[in-house]
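Whether sequence alone determines local backbone shape is best considered at the level of individual chains. When preparing material for the folding task, we compiled for one chain both its residues and its backbone structure tokens. The sequence in question and its structure tokens are set out directly beneath this paragraph.
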Amino acid sequence: MASESAGEARESENLDGPTPEERLKALGLELPSVPSAVGDYEPWVEVNGVIYTSGQLPWIDGEMKYTGKLGDKLTVEDGYQSFRISALNAIAQLKSAVGELSRIKRIVRVEGSVQATPDFTEQPQALNGASHLINDVFGAKGRHSRMIYTDPGMCLDCTTLVVLWAEVER
């Protein structure tokens, strides 16, 4: 019940309150430089008012902060922090797409991929790192659906990857 109450509290927030950029500042966060593509693809595309980001990794200043598998040498808390960094990079991609994050009408979906051992089962708790950050930055507009995938071998040996779908105000 406590989580439902927290969700209800977020839903009742004033949508004319702080902007996502102001919320980031209040959280003591700055958006990183937009990571460049690591292959032949677009970092984001817009279709019918929805922006889809490409997968964002846990880069900090061009360096992969988390590598390896959850359940091996990495813990759920490591996964949480890795997903948080990946989500911050995804939010930076959204900002590059729309200019001002206040143009985001709603975060529709969060998809996360995690590199984990076959016996690791706490993927949802790790993905909360992305969900909590997104909800904190976007308030009620950040409430989203989500999906998590487990992969035994991720690109560049990264631990996490986040994809965002966001509806844009026209």
Observations:
- Residues 21-30+42-168 form a domain with the 60s Ribosomal Protein L30; Chain: A; fold (CATH 3.30.1330.40).
- The chain has four helices and seven strands.
